[in-house]
Amino acid sequence: xxxxxxxxxxxxxxxxxxxxLKLGDSGEVFYELALEMVxxxxxxxxxxxxxxxxxxxxxxGQYPIFVxxxxxxxxxLKNCWFLNMDEYLTAEGEWVEKAHPLSFRGFMDRAVxxxxxxxxxxxxxxxxxxxxxxxxxxxRVIQRLGGVDVAFGGIGINGHLAFNEARDELTCAEFAALPxxxxxxxxxxxxxxxxxxxxxxxxxxxxxxxxxxxxxxxAARKIRLGVFRDWHRSVVRQAAYxxxxxxxxxxxxxxxxxxxxxxxxxxxxQPF
Length: 272
What we know:
Largest sheet: 7 strands, parallel
Helix content: 25-40%
Strand order of the largest sheet: 1-10-9-6-2-3-5
Number of strands: 10
CATH topology: Rossmann fold
Distance between the termini: 15 Å
């Protein structure tokens, strides 16, 4: 059991159930994600088509590169829609304020939308976050736009995509059908995020969130996942080689026809 943890960095990707692109440092991973964004938008603009992305706040290293390329190359985002994956909620079930250090809406404003040339950036109406009071709106938007072109993201410590936490009691089909919704964040996810985002202040971490559903992620025409941390060494192996189950949600991507995990050399290393 768990033989995949023993896969060497050299062999990582061989016979994987999800293709793996191995790169050098984290900057290469972020650049690859940014290029996927820019090239898709440029191609769709030339064809007169809208571009629809599911966007994460984690990983985030691709956004400064994306902003620079868009501004330098004068790429219009006027026909582009960013559907953000998730957002933390207060105890009362409201989005945390944009000024909150963990706010994903605040991050996107500070790091992306206000950094883009105003002549190029998409209208605010095309910057969508899941709404805790109307979670079904995300699916309505996707249907109206004709589907998602690329779902970008990372993989959490327990295999979660967005905040789709493990649900051992569900079948793969049941988990894959989960819609956009409000849910409790698992303690393991709160611990991992507290270490990365709040210097270990777990008691200050929100306990609730609103997340885009597995149904929306898995229905995207492409899925691109970036991994680069030390603990991603085990996560990438379980996602790409493990048994498909709701216990480790990223394994459900194994069925997707156009998915790719992009890893740096660090995360490609053997866990132990």
